[in-house]
Specification:
Layout lengths: L10 E5 L3 H9 L4 E5 L14 H13 L3 E5 L6 H14 L6 E4 L2 H10 L4 E4 L8 H10 L3 E3 L6 H9 L6 E8 L11 H6 L17 E3 L7 E3 L14 E3 L4 H6 L4 E4 L6 H19 L10 H7 L7 E2 L23 E11 L4 E6 L3 E2 L3 E5 L6 E4 L3 E3 L7 E2 L5 E5 L9 E5 L6
Parallel strand pairs: 1-2, 1-11, 2-3, 3-4, 4-5, 5-6, 6-7, 7-11, 10-12
Antiparallel strand pairs: 7-10, 8-9, 13-14, 13-21, 14-20, 15-19, 16-17, 16-21, 18-20
């Protein structure tokens, strides 16, 4: 039974650092993706897209009823303005559905060069109040991406006090900055790399000591444990258990952070949020219950400890991770299924990491629950039975009684050191 009320189903918006990640995000259930060109996108660490790749990605997404938004949300200097105009002229006919901006000058230039192109206002614009959102709408913005520092109560008030035609988007999952909605000066000051130009060195993850003015050269650690402290290091945002509250807040788009993350990461996170959203709308009114197994899923990718950020109020000390800047990695992605032969029950797999006959494997599929099994038989590309898949990027055939779709990921739990 469908959810019978007036709440509109929100868009699930996924990161895509390159063309393959775009395709994987759409395959695993994203309604839209956001990408970066080779300039202006605030993620120089991502592979990003050439103009030809943007056009190819747009066609792939549109053929599957998904949208593509192009990020151009740097804080530009004078020399960037003319370059942006040339860049926009080169991409405006690729079919992109919107451009994401943070700067008023680039907004005006976009209106001149591509007047029919939808504009989304980036979280970098620090949108934290209804009057700001309303003003962007009056100037012609279709969507405002709210600052990460917003609570549910503030979001609901902005929704109540802005035109219903204005779309509201917010981040629901991924890394958090120690800054104001991404506007950080630490990287520029400490490493000469401007985070507002896409070159962040992530100094918030570094290990710090204190030095007293009268004791130069004496470095005093601020102890949290034997390894020191990480005073700027935020936990990762995860609002998956609160999908119902997100939906009922009035947001129209749920944004996942992570354009520099792997294809496996994108697929896993998108699949979990897709399932939770669909479960809500497939429930009877008032009867939605969060499936705790989905939280287990998002813990199977590389991540920091999770937090709800600002959604339930200003965070306290528990939202910071003082012990380490390292990621939690409990599972490895060991292969990707290319095709499946229903007669032989053999899956053609591109190997990514080593695995053995006898290993317990989980298959993360684009549709339905994951499938778990022990590998009891596999061969190399020539059909010779093998005991270990030991050569990354090689072709391996793995027996599986369950039909597997292309782009299914093989993942394997890491063994503890005591095992």
């Amino acid at each position: 039974m469908s959810y019978d009320n007036n709440i509109q189903k929100p868009e699930l918006l996924a990161p895509a650092g390159n063309l393959e990640k775009l395709k994987m995000a759409v395959t695993y259930g994203a309604d839209a993706v956001y990408i970066g060109g080779e300039e202006f996108s605030l993620r120089v660490a991502a592979d990003n897209f050439t103009v030809a790749e943007i056009a190819e990605g747009v066609k792939y997404a549109h053929d599957r009823n998904a949208k593509v938004y192009l990020t151009a949300n740097v804080i530009p200097h004078n020399e960037d303005i003319d370059d942006y105009g040339d860049f926009l002229k080169s991409v405006k006919d690729t079919g992109i559905d919107a451009v994401i901006l943070s700067d008023l000058g680039m907004f005006a230039l976009t209106k001149e060069i591509a007047p029919d192109l939808d504009i989304h206002i980036s979280t970098q614009a620090n949108n934290v109040n209804y009057k700001s959102a309303e003003m962007w709408y009056k100037m012609g913005a279709k969507r405002v991406i709210l600052a990460r520092e917003m609570s549910f109560d503030e979001i609901k008030e902005i929704r109540r006090r802005t035109p219903k035609e204005l779309e509201l988007e917010a981040f629901v999952h991924g890394a958090m900055c120690i800054s104001y909605s991404g506007r950080c000066l630490l990287s520029n000051y400490m490493a000469g790399r401007d985070s507002n130009q896409g070159q962040c060195a992530h100094p918030c993850r570094w290990k710090y000591f204190l030095m007293e003015e009268q004791r130069p050269g004496e470095y005093m650690p601020v102890y949290e444990n034997e390894r020191g402290t990480f005073i700027y290091n935020s936990k990762d945002l995860c609002m998956l258990p609160y999908i119902d509250k997100l939906i009922e807040s009035g947001l129209c788009s749920f944004k996942i952070e992570g354009r520099v993350k792997s294809e496996f990461y994108v697929a896993t996170i998108v699949k979990a949020y897709r399932t939770a959203i669909d479960n809500y709308f497939n429930s009877k009114p008032g009867e939605y219950k969060f499936d705790e197994r989905l939280l287990d899923e998002v813990k199977k990718v590389s991540h920091r400890d999770y937090t709800t950020g600002f959604y339930f109020g200003k965070p306290g000390g528990s939202e910071q991770h003082y012990e380490s800047s390292s990621y939690i990695r409990n599972y490895d992605m060991v292969g990707v299924v290319q095709e499946y032969n229903e007669e032989t029950k053999m899956a053609k797999v591109i190997q990514k990491n080593r695995f053995f006959k006898g290993n317990k494997i989980e298959f993360l599929r684009p549709y339905g629950d994951f499938h778990e099994q022990i590998i009891d038989y596999m061969t190399d590309e020539d059909g010779n039975e093998i005991e270990v898949a030991n050569h990354p990027q090689s072709i391996v055939y793995v027996r599986c009684d369950t039909k597997l779709e292309p782009d299914t990921f093989m993942r394997m739990e890491r063994k503890s050191k005591s095992e």
